[in-house]
């Protein structure tokens, strides 16, 4: 009898919840927006309320939510304390792809600005979209402070705010007799003593992996880089999924070298780690520069506020703070960095990078050819 | 007869009765609608990219892949090969566990059994961390080997590493499904066979084995499908040298090369679905009569009388325990250890302190531990309530005989066979951004959408745990109940459900596990609006140092262990009432 009562209630409540779930889905969480063309009114993102404006900024998650340090919280507080506005962070999981996707589906971007673009992303955007996702930056008073070498968008949409140099990080303590030292050139990586010694990342899905691949193309040429990678593979290089996968394996001592950033020691120093395990090597005395930029959406509802934010980010003191918190180099020439940052963040003797136009015509061919050469053989 | 007339007289009872009569059809219709909105429509929008180019039908992207030696041999064939080996390993590791759980009594058996589902909710990055720490160059295994004077093994970044990690995920699945089936074997049938002169081995082969095979089949099929679509584990433990189809699907999606991504996903899905259909038609033919009221008695792991045979059995169990320890316990223990290890290698609680601090002072747009725990539990409870009725209804519908049943069955099982990346992308494009219906943009997001999406991926587990037991029920039981005046629904609740209850509980535990472990659609449907779950928090906390992510991983481990314990224990108790 008891069982019967229970089963009856359990069954009934299960069904009730299911029904509630269904009607609820259409009743509570569905928002109807007028679709189609010019009359579309935006119901997302910005609301103007008695002069207090809201600036919606899209970015990648770790810019606001890294467990170590991240510039997001500080930027929001500083910006809001000075401007009569609210800064709202958006961190879609797919990053900038989220906004490309929206544009492809005919949905407004819902944000004013994106922070965290690189040249490869711009190429992807321009490749996939006919309409402009971002608009050229106009009226910036501090544009002249930006290091010219870092400017990567010929159309002037993306303004660099920091840069990283992709380099090798190696662990001196892993040497068998005496300290381990990384080779000085790309050719050196092919020597037998470095067999199985390098962890890299998948260039088709990881930013550091892609930058390292581009660096090999710069060093070995378009005709030579596939051969070079075939030899690297013979020397047992390991290409893992992303930076986190490979850095975890590196930290566990799986291999003495990993493709990472030349700012690696900054954080290692802050957290009191053994710097012998965080040595930097610039192959061929070069580092691949991967500047990060910000750009205003073409359909931004607060374009003026977006411009003010970009100018704010380019201020010397803000540049220094972003550099320290994002563990990257500033993009402007006049930022004043704290001493220990300068001591532990290494800049390559020569920075290498592909210009936008070169990437635009070749990037997907290069990575596709690499993937077919390298995978599952 | 009196009750019938009574029922028609009182309105309340009339409604109850009408509802009872139509309940099955109602749940079936609701299931179909949910499936269409949250699964078939979104997935179709992605697959369309494979065959539609600028509004015109084309087979070019598909033929391009199917005529490419690279994709056929290097990628697709390799994917199938590693999935096959992974399935063998999962069976080898999972079947002995099912035997132990179903046939032996030992302290902590119930608890251990509840916990076998834990690997299912472990974020793959946590598993990768645990495996590197266990099987890596400086890992526990190598330190143990060196300590006893054996040469170290290089296991990481090989096919073997991938296979072991896949077994970590899927052997518990095999063990769970087979244990549920084994426990519902009627002891009287075995006794009858023995009374008729069969020796124990013969009785096992002729009576027990036929009742276990469908569940072994489902365990193997699921393992193959899951490992066929494997991606984070492959990259983290094998590297790009061992890339699977799914690795390429992900890369193409990230590059927004949808025609190629969709074509690869279509090929992947066709292979998985064909396999599912083949299995289902086999399962349909495996019908054996028998009830489930009298489970087989369990014996003690330590034999009461020692004989060469019982000694061998005990040694076997001991050896198996060592292997289980290495594959399951050491990786999890390594992860727990990582959560209390500081940068200098010493013990510390700083990572947990970080979580507490984040909870206290974190900004609204940062992930915090408590909302993650609360959301995970809320979504899991919702999923349980939605997926169990859906799954049981589908099990009833798919155990009836009619033409095209295998097709319906395979379509209902499709959520298994379609990769998470494709479902996530489809949800994003079809529902999160909205669909124009007669000039109105319909969007589906939020908590209820997440629960519905979790239920869609969870209900096939309920179905597959329950369906084999349903198909074994004696039709005459239901017929007698119906002839005595019971409605179809009443017959279900009073006669059938109690007999298949072990399967329902097993399915319910899976539903909870799927919901807690789900990542792809959660993060998309949540839209960052405070609806993140524990796995999302783990992923977000990953960075330059591992500590906070592993600490959050341990929180996930603790919360889910307690949940499964509750589901299994209370589920079991209710079943016995």
TrEMBL record, chain A:
Residues 25-51 are annotated as: Disordered. SUPFAM superfamilies: Periplasmic binding protein-like II. GO terms for biological process: thiamine transport. It holds the Pfam family SBP_bac_6. GO terms for molecular function: thiamine binding. Keywords: Signal. PANTHER family: ABC TRANSPORTER SUBSTRATE-BINDING PROTEIN, THIAMINE-BINDING PERIPLASMIC PROTEIN-RELATED. This is Thiamine ABC transporter substrate-binding protein. It comes from Haloferax litoreum.
Automatic annotation (TrEMBL), chain B:
It comes from the Archaea. One of its GO terms (biological process) is transmembrane transport. The chain crosses the membrane at residues 23-43, 83-102, 114-135, 155-178, 212-237, 257-280, 317-340, 377-398, 410-432, 444-462, 499-526, 546-567. It is a multi-pass membrane protein. Signal peptide: none annotated. Residues 76-279, 373-567 form the ABC transmembrane type-1 domain. This is ABC transporter permease subunit. It holds the Pfam family BPD_transp_1. The lineage of its organism: Archaea, Methanobacteriati, Methanobacteriota, Stenosarchaea group, Halobacteria. GO terms for cellular component: plasma membrane. Belongs to the binding-protein-dependent transport system permease family.
């Amino acid at each position: 009898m008891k069982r019967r009562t229970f089963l009856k209630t359990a069954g009934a409540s299960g069904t009730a919840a299911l029904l509630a779930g269904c009607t609820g889905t259409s009743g509570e969480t569905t928002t109807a927006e007028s679709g189609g063309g010019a009359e579309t009114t935006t119901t997302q993102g910005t609301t103007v309320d008695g002069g207090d404006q809201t600036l919606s900024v899209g970015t990648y998650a770790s810019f606001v939510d890294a467990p170590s340090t991240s510039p997001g919280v500080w930027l929001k507080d500083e910006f809001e304390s000075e401007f009569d506005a609210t800064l709202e962070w958006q961190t879609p999981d797919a990053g900038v792809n989220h906004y490309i996707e929206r544009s492809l589906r005919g949905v407004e971007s819902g944000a004013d600005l994106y922070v965290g673009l690189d040249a490869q992303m711009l190429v992807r955007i321009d490749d996939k979209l006919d309409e402009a996702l971002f608009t050229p930056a106009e009226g910036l008073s501090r544009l002249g402070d930006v290091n010219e070498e870092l400017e990567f968008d010929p159309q002037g949409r993306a303004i660099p705010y920091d840069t990283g140099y992709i380099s090798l990080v190696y662990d001196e303590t892993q040497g068998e007799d005496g300290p381990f030292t990384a080779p000085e050139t790309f050719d050196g990586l092919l020597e037998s003593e470095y067999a199985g010694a390098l962890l890299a990342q998948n260039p088709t899905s990881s930013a550091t992996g892609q930058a390292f691949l581009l660096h090999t193309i710069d060093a070995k040429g378009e005709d030579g880089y596939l051969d070079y990678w075939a030899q690297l593979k013979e020397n047992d290089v390991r290409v893992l999924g992303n930076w986190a996968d490979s850095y975890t394996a590196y930290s566990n001592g799986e291999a003495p070298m990993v493709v990472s950033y030349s700012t690696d020691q900054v954080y290692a120093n802050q957290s009191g780690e053994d710097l012998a395990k965080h040595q930097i090597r610039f192959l061929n005395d070069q580092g691949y520069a991967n500047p990060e930029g910000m750009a205003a959406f073409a359909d931004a509802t607060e374009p003026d506020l977006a411009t003010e934010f970009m100018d704010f980010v380019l201020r010397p003191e803000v540049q220094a703070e972003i550099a320290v918190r994002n563990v990257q180099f500033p993009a402007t020439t006049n930022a004043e960095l704290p001493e220990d940052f300068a001591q532990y963040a290494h800049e390559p003797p020569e920075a290498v990078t592909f210009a936008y136009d070169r990437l635009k015509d070749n990037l997907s061919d290069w990575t596709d050819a690499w993937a077919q050469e390298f995978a599952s053989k | 007869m009196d009750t019938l007339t009574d029922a028609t007289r009182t309105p309340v009872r009339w409604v109850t009765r009408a509802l009872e009569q139509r309940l099955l059809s109602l749940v079936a219709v609701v299931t179909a609608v949910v499936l269409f909105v949250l699964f078939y429509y979104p997935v179709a929008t992605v697959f369309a990219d494979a065959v539609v180019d600028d509004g015109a039908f084309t087979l070019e992207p598909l033929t391009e892949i199917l005529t490419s030696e690279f994709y056929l041999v290097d990628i697709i064939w390799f994917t199938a090969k590693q999935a096959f080996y992974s399935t063998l390993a999962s069976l080898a590791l999972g079947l002995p566990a099912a035997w132990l759980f179903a046939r032996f009594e030992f302290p902590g058996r119930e608890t251990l059994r509840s916990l076998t589902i834990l690997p299912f909710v472990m974020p793959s990055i946590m598993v990768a961390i645990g495996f590197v720490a266990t099987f890596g160059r400086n890992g526990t295994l190598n330190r143990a080997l060196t300590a006893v004077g054996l040469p170290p093994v290089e296991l990481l970044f090989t096919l073997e590493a991938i296979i072991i990690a896949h077994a970590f995920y899927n052997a518990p699945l095999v063990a769970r499904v087979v244990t549920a089936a084994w426990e519902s074997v009627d002891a009287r049938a075995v006794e009858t066979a023995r009374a008729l002169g069969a020796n124990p081995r013969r009785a096992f082969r002729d009576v027990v084995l036929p009742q276990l095979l469908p569940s072994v089949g489902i365990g193997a099929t699921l393992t193959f499908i899951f490992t066929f679509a494997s991606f984070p584990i492959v990259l983290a433990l094998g590297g790009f040298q061992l890339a699977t189809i799914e690795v390429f699907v992900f890369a193409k999606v990230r590059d927004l090369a949808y025609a190629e991504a969709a074509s690869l996903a279509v090929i992947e899905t066709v292979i998985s679905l064909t396999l599912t259909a083949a299995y289902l038609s086999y399962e349909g033919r495996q019908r054996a009569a028998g009830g489930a009221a009298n489970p087989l008695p369990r014996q003690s792991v330590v034999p009461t009388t020692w004989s060469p045979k019982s000694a061998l059995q005990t040694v076997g169990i001991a050896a198996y325990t060592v292997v289980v320890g290495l594959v399951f316990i050491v990786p999890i223990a390594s992860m727990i250890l990582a959560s209390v290890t500081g940068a200098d290698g010493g013990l510390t609680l700083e990572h947990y302190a970080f979580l507490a601090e984040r909870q206290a002072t974190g900004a609204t747009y940062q992930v915090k531990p408590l909302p993650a725990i609360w959301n995970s539990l809320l979504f899991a409870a919702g999923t349980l309530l939605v997926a169990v009725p859906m799954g049981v209804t589908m099990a009833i519908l798919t155990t009836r005989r009619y033409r095209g049943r295998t097709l319906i069955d395979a379509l209902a099982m499709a959520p298994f066979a379609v990769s998470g990346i494709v479902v996530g992308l489809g949800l994003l494009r079809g529902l999160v951004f909205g669909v124009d219906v007669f000039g109105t943009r319909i969007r589906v997001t939020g908590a209820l959408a997440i629960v519905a999406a979790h239920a869609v991926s969870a209900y096939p587990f309920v179905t597959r745990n329950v369906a084999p037991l349903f198909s074994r029920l004696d039709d005459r039981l239901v017929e007698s109940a119906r002839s005595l005046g019971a409605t179809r629904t009443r017959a279900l609740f009073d006669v059938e459900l109690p007999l298949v209850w072990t399967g329902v509980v097993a399915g319910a535990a899976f539903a909870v596990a799927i919901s807690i472990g789900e990542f792809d659609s959660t993060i998309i449907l949540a839209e960052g609006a405070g609806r993140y779950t524990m796995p999302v928090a783990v992923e977000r906390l990953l960075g330059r140092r591992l500590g906070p992510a592993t600490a959050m991983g341990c929180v996930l481990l603790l919360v889910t262990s307690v949940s499964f314990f509750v589901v299994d224990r209370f589920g079991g108790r209710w079943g016995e009432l």
